[in-house]
Every structure is written in C-alpha cells, then in structure tokens.
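quick one
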Amino acid sequence: MSNLPPASPEHPEAFGPPIAVPAVMRWLKTISSRWARHGLVAVLLAISVFAVWSAITTGRLAQEAIASSLLSDDYTSAAFAVTEAESLERKYRLEPGPEVRRRYDEVVTELMSALDRVHQSGSLQDRTLVEYIRTSQQPYLESINRMFDAVDRGETAEVLRIDNDEVDPRFEIIEQTVSQASANHHRVSIQSLKKLRARESFNANTTPIVFIAGLLLVGLFANVLRRTRIELDSQRKDALHASLHDKLTGLPNRTLLADRFEQAMRLGRRQGSTTGLLLIDLDRFKEVNDTLGHHYGDCLLDQVGKRLINEAREIDTVARLGGDEFAILLPSAEGLDGALKAAQRLHTAITAAFEIDGVELDVEASFGVVVSGLHGDDPSTLMQRADIAMYAAKKQGKGILAYDPEADRRSPERLAMLGELRRGLERGELFLEYQPKVSLSTGEVTGVEALVRWQHPVRGLVRPDEFIPFAELTGIIGSLTQYVLNLALSQVRAWVDVGIRIPVAVNISARNLLDDKLVFQIVDLLEHHQLTPNMLMLEVTESAIMLDSYAARTILRQLHSMGIHIAIDDFGVGYTSLAQLKDLPISELKIDKSFVLAMQSDQANELIVRSVVDLGHNLGMAVIAEGVETAELFNALGGYHCDMVQGFHVCRPISAEAFKLWYEERERK
Ligand code: C2E
Ligand code: CA
Ligand code: CA
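structure w/ calcium ion:
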C-alpha cells in the first residue's frame, strides 16, 4: 500500500526510530537526577551528624567542667577550714574561751563535711587522699584537744611542747595535703573550663559555616533535581506527542486518528450525525521519491499535508498513516454527498501542481470514501471499507470512489472471511503444499512452487482462489505473503539441512509490489533462515506489473539485484507489452495453464505455446509450462524445447513430508 520505504540507512530521518541522542540525554538526566538526590541525602545526613556530634561533645565537656569546678570548690572550702582552724588555734592560746573553742569545733566540722563531699564526688585518687587526711586528722585533733586543755590549765610549757612536738607537724601534713590538692583541682577546673570555652568558640565559628555550606549544597542539588524533573517532564510530553504524531509532517498518526475516530463515532451516535472518512493514497509518489530523491519526496509529503489541512475544516482531522497514505476524518459530515464533496475539494487541492526547490511536481491521488451508518457502524469496518474503496479507485483509475456494497456482493460474508483470515494467520491455520518443477531435458527437479491452503476450523480446507482475492483487497495480503515466505523459507532450510538443495517459488500478489516493505522483509527472512537469495524465486503475474508498473518494476529490480529470481506467472492471459517484458529483470516465463491444457484440442493454442517458448528463449529466459496433466502434453512440450514443466502428470501439490519421500524415491531411480 505504501510506496515509501520504512527506515532506510540512507534516509533515516523520515521513518527511522527516534535517533539515539535524546536517549543518551535522557540517560544522563536520569543519572544526574540520581546523583542530585543522593547528594541531597548525603548533605542532610552530614549536617545532622555534625549537629549531634557537636551537641554530645560540648555537653560532655560542660559536665566535666561543672564536676571539676564543684570538686575544686570543695577542696577550697577544706583549705579555708584548715587555715581558719590554724588561726583559731593561735587565738585560743592568746585569749582562750568557750566561744573560740566552739568556733574551732565548727570549723573542724566544716572541714569534715567538705572532705565528705570530695569523697563522694571525687575520683579514686581523691578518695584515697581524703582517707589519708582523715587518718592524719584524728591524732591531730586529739593533740589539739590536749593542748587546749593545757591552755585552760595555764601550763605554758606543756602547751609549747604539745604544739611543737605534735600539733605543728601533724597540722603541716594536713595543710600541705589539702592546699596542694585544692591548688591542683583549681588548675584542672580552669583547664576544663578552657576546653569548654574552646569548644564553644569552635561551635560558634563552624556551625554557621557548616549550615550555610549545607544549605548551599541542598539548594544546588534541589535545583538540579528540579531542573532535571522539568526537563524529564517536557521530554515525556514530547515523547507522548511523538507517539501520536507523524515525525515528517507533524500530522496526527494512525493511533491518534483511531482515537479521534472512536470519539467522533460516539458523538455522532448521540447527536445523530454522520462521520465520514477519506482514505488517500498518492499515485506515482514513488516515482518522485526515486527520480528526484528523498528530499523531494519528504517535501512533497509535507506540502500535501499542509494543503490538506488548509482545505479541510477546522474540526476535521488530517492524519498521515505512513508512506504516501493520508486519511481525513470528517466528524459531522453531511451524509455521503457531503463526504464526496469534501473529497472532491481535497482532491482538486492536491492534484494542483506543487513547487519544490523550483521544480514543479504533479501528483495524482486515489480517494476511498466511507460514511458511518451507510457503510458501517464501527471504525475498524469503516477503515477497512475505505481501504477497499481507495484500492478500487486506484485500480480503476478513478480519483475518488465511495465504498460500493453492490460491487462487493456477499460483502458481509466476505468481510467475515477477512476477519477469520486474520485470525487464521495468527493461529497458524494456513499451511503450504509444494509442487515440483522438473527439467524436460534432464528430468532433474529444478524447484518447487509453494501453494498456500487454509485449514478452516469450520469450513474445512479452503483453496487459495477462495481467499487470496479478498486478502488482496486489503492490507491482509501483506501479512499473508510474509507468512507464506516465512513458512516456505523455513521449509527450504529444513530440506537443505538434510541435503536437499531445491529453491522455492512463492507467489506474490499485485498489491505486494506496491509495498516497499516487501524487500526488507525478504532480506530479513533470508538472513533469519540463513539462506542465499538464489534459493528463493518470486512468481509475479503480468497484471501485477501492470497495476503500478513503475513501482512494481522498481521493487522487482531491487529484488533481482539481490540475486532473487523472478518468474512471470500466468503468462499469456495479461497484456504485457513485449517492450516492457524486455526491460524487466525476469529469469523465468511461466506459460499459463489455460494454454497448456487446451493445447492438444486446439491448434491455435499449440502455436501460442510454441511462440511463447521461442519468445522466452529470445529474451534470455527459461520457459516453464504449468498445468501439464498428461504424458502427451509432457512429451509435446519436450518437442517444443520448453525447459521445464509443472503439473499433475509430474506431481500434484503435496505436503513437505510427502514431497521429501517423492523426491528421495525419484533420486533412487
Ligand atoms: P498459480 O500460481 O497459477 O498456481 C498453480 C495452480 O495450478 C495451483 O492451484 C495448482 O494446484 C494448480 N495446478 C498445478 N498443476 C496442475 C495441473 O496439472 N492441472 C491443473 N488444472 N491445475 C494444476 P492452487 O494451489 O489452487 O492455487 C491457485 C492460485 O492461488 C495460484 O495459481 C496462485 O495464483 C494463488 N496462490 C496460491 N498460493 C498462493 C500464495 O501463497 N500467495 C499468493 N499470492 N497466491 C497464491
Ligand atoms: Ca504461481
Ligand atoms: Ca499460474
């Protein structure tokens, strides 16, 4: 159907897959957004760790400082008490009295309680020290009391003796110990405070820096995240747009058209209006593409799209379905007349000359027209019928044709058959039989023709003549040919694997030759089954070449240049001019069985067959006769120097397994 190649290496921009660059960009975006997210988490984590660490360490230092300052205070109280005790002792000796003695006792109690507090909160070293002071204090207090008693008694000599021998040395020990410990702890306390202060000033300096740097990084990462999110969003939007629009013309594609078609039908049913669809296929577009190059082809398609949009109403949808195929959806078309008028207007618009880079170009176009209600009630039936109408318009050389149910008698049955055929292909209900071609001079099997059959679950075995013509009416023939090619080539592969090297001939329909995909499909299949091109022959009828001879010839030349043999099938019933035949890359000429079968009863046919054999040979082709049912025919053809024969006399079309047995049997003889 389409005349334009899908993605071809020298022309990737028109139909190729989205180029790789955006994919790389998308990948980079995803990576950078992932990094930004990780970075964000890392920074927040680092800030939290810093905050917790600084709180814990500062708290610990503060506690140390408090404890050490309390201890130092206790030692200081103890030291004070010791000093006061000494001065009270002196005072008692000068002016004794109960008041001084009471005060002295109080000071001793103060000293004891200060030492108790040190014992409680101090370290092991402090506790040992306190115990040491306590043990030294007991004899000292006893001596003091004795000295005080001596003072009370007025025994001055005894007082001096106790003071010199007992009190002073014992006191000195206590005083020194206490004052030294007090001084030490004072130093330690000051040091703790210093440490705490240093930590606090460190915190004061670094916290803002850490937080500011953290905030900056968080901002940076958040910004990266936001930006990549925005870009990814817009990429997503672009991808959505791309999935619904044709890249070359920017028009809605098949998917979007189908969606709008559904909507229009729904709305039409509610409002009682008709929905129209015009299916347009450009004629001779391939010629532009091939003779002037893809640039012109692309520009032409673009301009065709623009003209269609200009001519269509605002509410209509102009879509490009692929290749040189366009569709226009007419919501609320005014019946078939309205749709035909619209088609006429659009046809006039696009058949007026185009100008591309100073070159004037004319295109012809075939329009298939359908409207809801009259031609069908669902988008897929309407699409299919528009396609049938378009193909009929093309075949008959009419610019515009509405779908004609009359021309398509038993149409509902046929349409049902089309649906079943599609399913049959999906379920593998179609299979192949093979009919050998043999050389008349050597008896050698030169090839087999693959003939398709359909094992229908209800109708039973259906012959190709009953379904191929319907398949040819629509795009199904494309899938069918692909299916047959695949089966035939996989069979050849299997035979080659067991040592049977016989090429297969596959029948190709007229419509296949309008579809450039055919060439790519064949290349893929040969590669897939690892077969050389000379293992495949294509049988093409004369009428197929005549339908769109330019397109057909181009495709045939491509196939021929790859090394695939082409046979012209049913030769004699069509109207191929000898001039055309000469220009075609054909290696085999197959005389139609109607001439062969009638040969024996009709002198004229005999002459035709003889002349075709000569004609073929003069054009450098091998000639094969089909429909060779009897030994007489077989022998007669030998007499005319026909190269090969095919027919029931040699072998009927049979299954692959039966063919293998037949072939092995024949080889043995
Ligand atoms: P065709 O290409 O002309 O195929 C030859 C037809 O002649 C086959 O009919 C074959 O069974 C029949 N035939 C073979 N030897 C004799 C004989 O000695 N006498 C008579 N009277 N007939 C003989 P078949 O298999 O029914 O196919 C009919 C047509 O269907 C084919 O005609 C071909 O045009 C088409 N066809 C078959 N398979 C395919 C396919 O895979 N793709 C396409 N596009 N068309 C196919
Ligand atoms: Ca054939
Ligand atoms: Ca034939």
